[in-house]
Structure formats: C-alpha cells, structure tokens
Fold these 2 entries.
Entry 1:
Amino acid sequence: MTKRVYRFKEGNAEMKEILGGKGANLAEMTRLGLPVPDGFTISTEACMDYLNNGQAFTSELKKEIETYLEQLELSSGKSFDDPENIMLLSVRSGAKFSMPGMMDTVLNLGLNDENVKHLATITQDESFAYDCYRRLLQMFGDVVFGIDTSHFEGYLDFYKQKHSVLVDSDLTAEQLKEIVTEYKRIYLEIKKLEFPQDPREQLFAAVEAVFSSWNNERAKIYRQLHRIPDNLGTAVNIQLMVFGNSGNQSGTGVAFTRNPSTGENKLFGEYLINAQGEDVVAGIRTPLPIANLKEAMPEVYQQFVEMSELLEKHYRDMQDIEFTIENKKLYLLQTRNGKRTAHSAFKIAVDLVEEGLKTKEEGIMSLDPQSVNQLLHPVFVEEALKEADLVSKAGLPASPGSATGRICFDAATAKEWVDRGEKVVLVRQETSPEDIGGMVVSEAIVTSRGGMTSHAAVVARGMGTCCVAGCSELEIDEFLKVVKYPNGTLTEGDVISVDGTNGDIYVGHVELTLSEKNEYFEQIMAWSKEFARLEIRMNAETENDIKTGIAFDANGIGLARTEHMFFAPERLIEMRRFILSDSTLARKEALETILEYQIEDFKTIFSTTQEKAVVVRLLDPPLHEFVPSKQADVERVAKEMDIRYEVLQQRINELHEINPMLGHRGCRLAITYPELYLMQAEAIIRSAISLQREMKLDVNPEIMIPLVGMTGELTILKEKINQHIQHILEEEKATIAYTLGTMIELPRACLIADELVKDADFFSFGTNDLTQMTYGFSRDDAAKYINQYITDGILPVDPFQTIDEEGVGELIRIAVKKARTIKPKMKIGVCGELGGDPESIAFFDKLGLDYVSCSPYRVPVAYIAAAQSAIQSK
Ligand code: PEP
Ligand code: MG
C-alpha cells in the first residue's frame, strides 16, 4: 500500500512534491527543533487519487488518517473529547508551489456544542471558547458547505451594530453564544444541513473540501497565470491548534526576514494581538508593525528574531514566516521563500551573494527573468506630478510601479471593461481570492483596508501589478460605486493614477515614463553576461528602439523589419504607386524614390549600431497591407495617383487575399517583383558604402530573405541580389563584406534545411510564422480561441508565447541538425517573439543556437534566461 500520510517528523524540505511546500517546510522546521505545533500531512498523491476517482474518499485513506490521529492524540496527550485536554486542529492546504489564499483552510476544527464548554472551563475564558466556535462555524460553512461568508459576516456586522460593539474581541460570551446559535440556523436555512457535531466527521469533510479546492475557479486561474501544472494536487496539513486569540498575551502575525518591497535587510512584518491567522491576511483589522512587538513582548520578539535569522541562513533565502503567540509562547506555523517585488528580488539576490549565502549562479537562478519587466515599469513624469491633484497620500505602497486607469469597483466590471479595450484600476475595500479575475486585468489595485501582507498586497506583488493598500482616507462604497476622499468624490469610470512605489493616488491621467535602472539590476546583468552562452540581439529598426536595446547591451540587431519603414504618409504613397500603377515608368520612379528613403533608413540603423551585427530582413508582408481599404481612402489615393477610382478599386480587388498571412508575401513578392528586393539590397549596400566613406564605419550587413520554402526561391534570389550588389560595388569601387541568409519560417524549410544551408550564410528561425504555419493558426486572430484551448487543456500554453517543443520545437531540432550536418559552424538564430521568452530561450540554448533576438525591453529578460539555461546545463 502506498503511504499517503506523513507525520511532520517523518518529512523534510526536499519532499515538496509529496508534502507540498507548507508540509515539507513544517517537517523541516520540526527537524530543526523549532517550536512547530505537531501534526501530519496528507500527500498530494492522495489528493489526485481523490480527484481522479470521482471524488471518492477511500476507506484505506480514512484508516491511515485515523492511525495518525491516534498517534497525535497519544503524543500530545489531547483528544477531541477529553474535558481536560481538548484537541483542536487546523486543516490547511499546501501545494508544491505556493498559491497564497487560493485554496481552503479550516481552523478550530473539532469543536462542538459539548466540548466548547470544556474549552471554556480549561481556559477559564468563555468568550474565547465561543469565539473559536463561531469562527469554526463560519469557515466550515464556507469551505465545506459552500455557504457564502457574507451570510456570517453580514450577521456579525449587524449584531455588533445593534449592540454597539466596535471590535470582535469586545463581544461577550453571552453575545457570542447568540451568534453561534444564529450561525447554526444559517446552515439550516441555506443548506438544510446541521453542522456536524462529530469531530471526525468534521475532519474528513474538511479534508475532502481542501482536496476539492484544488479545482476551484480562483485556484485554476492562479495556476494558469503562474504556469503551475493542474496535475500536482494539494497536500493537506493537519496540525494542533495554537491560539493567537486567547487574550492579550497572544497574537498572530506574518513577517519577512527582509523587506519584500525594497529588499532592505531588516525584519519586516505585522502582527495582531488577540487574533487568529486569517485576521491578518484578510486585512479586516489593520495590524501593527513587527517592531512594536519588541516593546510589547521583548522575549518573544528576541526569540522570533533569532529563529528568523536561523531560517534565512538555513534556506539561504529571504523567508516569509507565519507565527502565533499563545500566552507568550511563540510557535512557527509556516516558513517559505518570501514572494517579493522585482526590485527587492534583485537587491536580495545581490546582497545574498555578497554576504556569502549564495553563489553568483544561485543568485541568478533565484530570479524570475520575467520580473525584470516590473523593474523596468513606468513611473510618473515629475513635472506632470506637480500639476496633478491628489486623491490621497495615506495608502501603503504595497506593490511598486505606476499606472492610470478608470475606476471599477468589482472584478466582473473590470474584466468587461478591459475586454472592450479600457484600462482599469480596481478599487475595493479589500480584495479576496474571488477577485483574482479582475485583479489580473487591472492596471492597478487600490484598497482602503488591510496591510502590506493583505490579500491585495500579496497577490499584486506576485503579479507585478501596482497596488496601494490600506488607504484609510478613502470611503469606498462598492454598492453605490462611489469613493469619497478628503477633497471630493469619484465614481465608476473616473480616471485615477496610482503610484504603488510610494502609495500616492492622483485624480485623472498623469503622464508616465520608464523608471531608471538600478545598481542591483546592473550587477545581475553583468553576472548574467558572464554565464550566458547565447548571444542576445534585438528586433528593432527605429533609432529610439535601437538605442534602448544598446543600452541593455544587445549584441546588435537580429531582425530589422523593413516594412515598418514604409508606413509614413510620404513613403506609403510611393509604395502604393509602385504596387498599384500599371505604367512601368511610374513604378520605376516610385521605386527610385523609395530607394533614397531606404538608403537614409539604413544609414540611421548602421550608424546607431556602429560595429554591431545587423540583420536586415527584406520586405515580407503581402502587398495588400499597403493599399487602402475604405472607400473614402481609395477615392483619396485615386486622386493622389491621378487615376480613376474604378481602375484603382479593380487593382485593389486583384490584390485582395482571403488568408492574408499566408499567400503572396515574403520572398514570393520578390520572385514576382524582383526589383523590390534589388532596390532594398541596393539601399543597404549604398548606405554601407556611404558610412564607410563619411564615417570610416565598417558595416557588415546581414541581408535576410523571409519565408523561403523551396531551394529554387533562395538560389534565384541569391543570384540576382549578389549580381546586383557586385555591380554596385564595382561601379563604386568599394568593398562591403555582407552576408546573405534566410529566415526559416515554414515547416517545409525545416525539412529541407540541409539543401537551403548550401545557399545561405545564416539561418534565423521566424518562430511567429513557423508556429502559425505548423498549427495552421492564423496569427492575426488565433487569440480568439487559444484561451479556450488552454482552458480545455488542449494546449498547455499559448504556442506563440512559449515554444511548443513537441511540434514546432521538433521542426527546429530537425532543421538545426540537418543544417549543421552540412555546415557544422552555420550561424543560426531566432528572431520570432519566442526569442524573448525564458522557457523558449532555454530550449534554443540547449539546441546550440548562436543567438536569440527579441524586442529591446526584453533583452535583459533574455540575458538572465540565457544565463540560467547555461548554469543549468553546466
Ligand atoms: C517570424 O515570423 O517569427 C518573424 C520574426 O517575422 P514576422 O513576425 O515579421 O513575420
Ligand atoms: Mg515571419
């Protein structure tokens, strides 16, 4: 029989797969001799068995749990019905990868009408006992029976108002008993069910509910967002309760060993006196900073500081620790590597390397390459801020970055507005895991309650979304959809600007700019470059973009898309003249004008990149992309070209293609209109000659032909282009060392790579087209159904964003192998979007490609991903 249950003392930190992160770390802390309340963990496998077998709880599993329960009773000397030593349990989820707040928890499990009285006698605190009972009723009702917590919360608020009670802890025992009675009535009214009085029945039901919570909507969305596989399952941790809500010498809190927002090496956290764990996370009461504990309970504080230092050294990373104090005794309930902002992640990685706790390699491996995007987040323009009207400065800077958008008060509206193209800011009293769908799509999140570790703060930091939490000056009415602030009122749809780095909120749209880089970012980039084997190039053609990529140290340009140069109005008209005229002379003249423009374009590119490599891709899109489509535009162009509307419309109809991203484009344009590519090749060479003469700059252009699928295409075009270039070089008495290569964007090209390689100096995989052509998905509108495919599990991820290793990846593997069998040193790169995706970069690195090329802002992401891949393959 497979073992499904493990005592904490049987496990260790390496067992995350089976025990989940929380379970493995509870086991590890137990092993280290830290004060962890005893308990056991039901494995993730048990969860998957349960979910795969039609949610059936097997008698074997029940028996195994019973055995461990008995052991726990024996070693703790407690039991559910011992009037002197009553055992209460917490039941918590815990998957391999942490999914904060996404799955369910039940606390105080085991209480019933009978033993609650014993608890009151033992603790001599009746209100404490009944407070535990009403919490159990609420959590159990929500988690196990699916009774919305608003029924319980609503009644509690109503009761407190009616009896003029301000905070929960002021409720008397008699009042709590009345609340308990009402809560039990809610069970009957909503579910026609009694609250189970048998603690064992409660336990099994709670375990089942936690298993099932693996598949609740918010957990599924979270997994999709963080690419966590669906088949891992959650473990269930069953642990003796300790009570943070047992008076003023008790409390509960969460602390990070370093500041998760800034990375500062100083204990950072919050706690609440006389409270249970969920009170801190839910953000209903605003907690105190951990530093206050130093005065309130100096010994406990000192102990906590020592334990947190020990844990950080042991795990060699910043820890996020949950603790509870029961009558001045400290217990640790969880430790894990703390989630952090990109900014702090970089600082912490560098600091830990410098403190000798991590090697450089480990420092790099600890980072999520994508988090660089947060580091390069926009900030408000100083000048614009001076003009802006303040909504509030009272908020907590919960997750950095700046953003503007229109106010929405609920997740559904936020989603709906974003779907219709709006940018939104989600404004709520507090968020709960149900809001995840709205939080994902929002530019920023603002809450009026809750601290730095509230749900909103934790989730926003994880997503890299800017967030201001606990902004107590705001009176948010989610029902009436208004928010009052000291100087006015805002309603749904009003635009605000939110600064998650300092907590300020402004009325209206404040202009944004990109944030400065910092020393930690620079250090990580320097280390990454030491380790990366792949070269990183950029996809860019404008001076600005090229400068951005160079600032990030890109090794030149992997793709300059020349069609982007044709869209300025004065150029577009020449392009249209070339495409639409039937007079050879007019076409020739148009091309000559374009040639002049292109020479200037290439001069700009080459002089900006200086000696760095540049791949210029010759014209690629279908010609109809350059022609007008609306009647009024056609009429205007006809006028400009001095021809009849009907003639022009007729020519446009001829060019029309149903499936525009296939068809007459790429090198096929040059097979039918060779003069186009010859003009571009000429422009490239002439600009190189002129830079050689004017600036003594030696450029070695890499000329790239797109969408080749047959050897004949390449041989013919190569011959024509080479001849044309030779002719110019002879005429100019100049020497320019250029190379001529091809993109590999068609499955057929992959399969005949051993033939194509003979006529090409280099290959560059155009993975956008290769993915489109392999799947037969049109890249222009696949987004419409790809999400459905992912939801239904047909696709694991969007193959336009992350390489499909089995299909597209296999084609690339075949092509590389075939090409390198003929030319072992063939230069091969990637210039599709996948060139900036960390997982895909690892794949390309392992295939031994020479470079990846991506948009300039992804260059740093690519460097870190390339370094990580190289470190992993060491
Ligand atoms: C590609 O297809 O991957 C590519 C880089 O070219 P484009 O996106 O311009 O078609
Ligand atoms: Mg392409």
Entry 2:
Amino acid sequence: MSNLFYPNKEKFKAPLIKNMCEYKDLVDEFAKDYEGTWAKFADMKIDWFEKYHTILDESNAPFYKWFVGGKLNVAYQCVDRHLKTKKNKAAIIFEGDNGDQKILTYRELAYEVSKTANMLRNQFDIKKGDRVVIYMPMIPEAAVCMLACAKIGAIHSVVFGGFSAEALKDRIIDAEAKLVITSDGAYRKGKPYMLKPVVDEALKEGCECVKKVCIVERNGETIEWVAGRDYSYNELVKNESSFCESEIMESEDPLFLLYTSGSTGKPKGVQHSSAGYILWAQMTMEWVFDIKDNDTYWCTADVGWITGHTYIVYGPLAAGATTVMFEGVPTFPDAGRCWKMVEEYKINQFYTAPTAIRLLHKTGEHEPAKYDLSSLRVLGTVGEPIDPAAWSWYYNAIGGGKCSIVDTYWQTETGGHIISPLPAATPIKPSCATFPLPGIVAEIIDEAGNPTPIGEKGFMCVTKPWPSMIRNIWGDGDRFVKSYFGDCKKDGKPVYFTGDGAMIDEDGYITITGRTDDVINVSGHRMGTAEVESAIKKHSNVAAVAVVGKPHAIKGEGIFAYVVLKGEDTVTEEMQMVQEINSIIKKEIGAIALCDDVVFVPDLPKTRSGKIMRRILRAIAKGEPITQDTSTLEDPSIVGKIESIVNSCAL
Ligand code: PRX
C-alpha cells in the first residue's frame, strides 16, 4: 500500500479503538449480532429513564424504529447527567467576533437550559411536539435554546442565519412553527449585522402559525418591536426558575427538523429521532475525535447546519466534552485568527470544511507558523472532498505532520459520520474518507445491487438501517421513501441511497466522488439546482434557466447559470441583468446561493421530450469535451452555440 500516513502513536494515549485489528473486531461483532451490538452501546452510553423493549422494529420499513419503548431526554443526556462528575467543567467556551469570551460550565449550562425551558413552557405555552424555529447567530444562547426545546420535548428547526426572509418563511410554514427565537443580530468582521428584521419580513404574510417571537439581545442595535408578538428573552428568562423537570421522551420522538436541499422541489425537513440520533452523535464524537476529559474541541461550523447540530452541540455535550463556539469568521481580523484561538485555548481537535482550509491556505499560508499548534491531535474535515493540496497543507502546516486527519463523510440525513478514519487506528490515504465506521453497513453498489468492481464508480448506499438515520421528511412520507429508498436495491430490498457516487480501491479504501443528482456543493453546503432555478425564474425577463456546478478554487463548486431571456430581447445591459438575478437569489434564498457565472444563451439543450441535458451544460461549464450523443436533442446545433458563447465570455 502506497502513500499511507500512519497515526502518530505519541499523540494517542488511550484511544477507544487502538488499531485496525480492534476496528475489524468491532465490525465483526456488528456482523455477527447487528442489533445486539447496537443494544450494547445503547445500554452503555444512554442514561435511560426506562429501558426499551425492542431494539429495531422493521415492520414498517423504511420507517425504521430503534430502541422502541425506551424513555430518555436528550437535554438530560447532554447536560444534567454530567452534573454528578463535571459540574465545574467548561461545557461551552464562546469566543465572539471581537474576541470577547464567555464560558458556561456544565452547571451554568444546566441552569440556563432549565430557565429557558421554563420560559418556553410558561411564557410561550410550548408543549411536547410543538415546533420552534431558531434563527440565531453563533452565540451560546443558540445551543441553550436547542437544548431547552429538547428538555421540554419541543421539536426545534434551526434555520441558518444566512438564509433570506423568503427561505426562513418557507421553513416556518412547512414546520408550522408556533414560536421563532432569534436575536437582534450579532457581529461579523468587527461590525454589527441584523437578524430580527429578516424575521419581521418573513412573518409579514403566510406565517399565521407563529404566535410569538422571542428575541435574544446580542448586539444592542435598535430593532422594531411588534406589541403582543415580540418578547425579550433577556427580560423573560431572568424571572424563571433554574429547575425544570425533563420531559420524558420516547426513543422515536422527533428531536429536531433540519431543512436541506434535494435535487427537486423545496427543501426537505429532515426529521431526526431522540435516542438513535444522540447515541450515534456521542459514539462518533468519542471514536472519531478521540475526545478525552481534559480536551478542548472546536468545530467551526454554524449551528444552522447539521455539522453544528451534531458536532458543536449534541455530540460534544453528550460526550461531556468542552465545545468551542465561535461567532466570527476565520479570516478576521486576519487569516491567523483560528490558529491564534488554537494556541490560546489549547485546542485538541479542530474540525472544519475544505473550503475554509483552502481559504486559509490561500490568504495566510505562513500564518500557522506564528502560533503554537502543538496541542492539536485530530484535524477533521467535512462537507466535500478535500483536494490533495489542501490536505497536505492541513497535515503539515497545521498538524505539524503529527495529527491524524479525519475526512468525515456524512450528511444531514445520516445524523452523524458514516465513513471516516479512526484517528489512532486508520492508516490514512490523503483525500480519502477510508472505511465505514463500525455499525454502518456502507456499500458501493451498482443498479442491480452488486458491489461495484475496484476503481469503478457506484452508488454510495447504507444497506442496513442504523440508529441515527433520518426518520422521515416532515409531513411528507412519500417523498421520504422516494428520495432515499427509490433508487437502489440490494437483494431486492430498497436500501438507503446517499445521492453520492463513490469508489473503492484495491485496499478497500472508499473515495467519495460527489453527488450523482442535481445538487451542487457550494462551500460544503448543499444547494438544489431546482431551488436556484426557481428563484431566477422569478425575474420577469427570464424565459428558461438551468444551473449547474462548476469547480471553484475556494468554494469547491460554484453556481453556473445558463439563462434564456424572453422574446427577442438581447442583453444590452448584461451586467445589470446579472445583478438583478443575483439580487433575486439573495432575496429568495440568501447570499450563499449567488451565481458565480451567468451566461445568456438562445436556448437550452433539450431532448425532444423537453428534458434539459444538464450533463452537456456541466461539461461546457467545466470546459470539458462533450461526450454525450447530441443527435437526440430537439436542436443539436444549440450545443455549439452555447459553447461558443461560454468561450467568448472567457469565464
Ligand atoms: O456530497 C456529500 C458531501 O456533502 C453532502 C452532504 O451535505 P449536507 O447534508 O449539507 O451535510 C454536510 C455536512 C455533513 C454529501 O452528500 N460530503 C459531506 N462530507 C463529505 C462529502 N463529500 C466528500 N467527502 C466528505 N468528507
């Protein structure tokens, strides 16, 4: 085996999985007794109020149920149960954009969560099963509110603070949320920015389900208050008791919804369970990050994404770890910010996305050398494939050639990692997610369900249900079945298909090759082409549009739009039209979905039945030769015309 990087044994004193033999033993244990092994971990890791009677109920597949009959509370699992042994340990370390710090010990966190939970119950009449939308910046109150919902059995739906009012409104309506928790705003790059006005805009019409809005004060900027609807968190919470009884939850009670993009239609409300989700969040935290009691762990994601849910809030806290929450951006005040924080807090595990690594490499190649990064042990990456150049800089300049890089492959729907190296055990191949974690039966198969040969692309599937998997798409069971269990079968049975392609090599290492559907991965965030297209179509001058992904040096993929204008219009003011299109996207979705390239074309390549041939458009955007047969197109000459327009734009 060539090009392998072995774990530095000095760095790993007492890992849970020490070497590949132990990894294989664990995989074998699951193979011999799949359910029994999961039950062993569930018994070991979860503080059950009442034990489950059935490990896995497959009677209504693919609506699987795990640990049926079990009773627990996820906030109790993450906070209260630690009070016996860790009450003065830092649970959350917050660093603000401007460098302010705040530490919440487990005891303080327990108080805050209880007070907030009481406030939700008493002041907002939130009950078990009610949906609460959380639209917040990266401040500790975001985690506190998530946990407070869990404490009383409310289902939270966190919406990323970068989403627009329209996107927020769609999510509020779909979840039929009763309450929105937000903040006046926060700080970014030394300046205040606002969130509350976005909520006001979202609630203007169509959100009658929302009765109240609760506002956390962060930046103190002036906001408008709607009498009878808007309430100050800071005012209300201070009068609440710091004792709150945890709601007794069933294993399968939904813990949260998180909206994510699919290839078609509106974003899907991915619904996660309580027991299965928290079990895997905790187990992967311990296995993949080698979390030890004195460690300080930092994940740079935002709580608005699944990485923030599982690996800033739920996983670290369930494991009793110290988790860092950072409000700012990695390049402010300079590209050394993260490394300065690593030095100051003596961070042991650092978890980020390849897009951030590329940006920090490009803008601050020599910054890491200015700081003492020797506390680091595990470096994580997530969200998209990491390219060899970024991998090598991460490994050498940040890890000093001594840290294990865990390239964690997973999705909103999987709840936690499914393929990842184990830092003390797995010999790593750069840019390779390596092996399925024990308990996850991840297989690369072809259309007939057979394993794909070495070196050939296949469908990345998980062929057995596992505890932290998505349970449903909120309010749309049919879409759930079709989206995830409609494409791949094994032994005649539908299996979970991730939507990604993958390849296995001669040593059994798995490399993820990217989405097989029309989802674009922008800076590690999923963008559905249908969503972006329907935003662009709102421009009155647009007749048709198709968007595809195009490789981008920092973002991984950028958005490339082919736009057909209405009537005889020629584009006299292309720049203005591009600006208008992007401002519609900003309004409908948010700045994360802005197009990097917009080209105006006379028509799109369509089959005679009207299907847009995206593969051709993808190839043109990338400057690759067209290998598809174009003779079946309605107008084969359109391909050459589009190619010459794109070439002449010299994009
Ligand atoms: O295409 C895969 C890519 O990100 C998608 C999941 O996106 P999302 O649900 O937003 O969750 C992102 C954070 C977990 C996957 O379908 N992806 C995620 N991690 C990797 C990856 N692609 C390659 N390598 C990874 N490590």
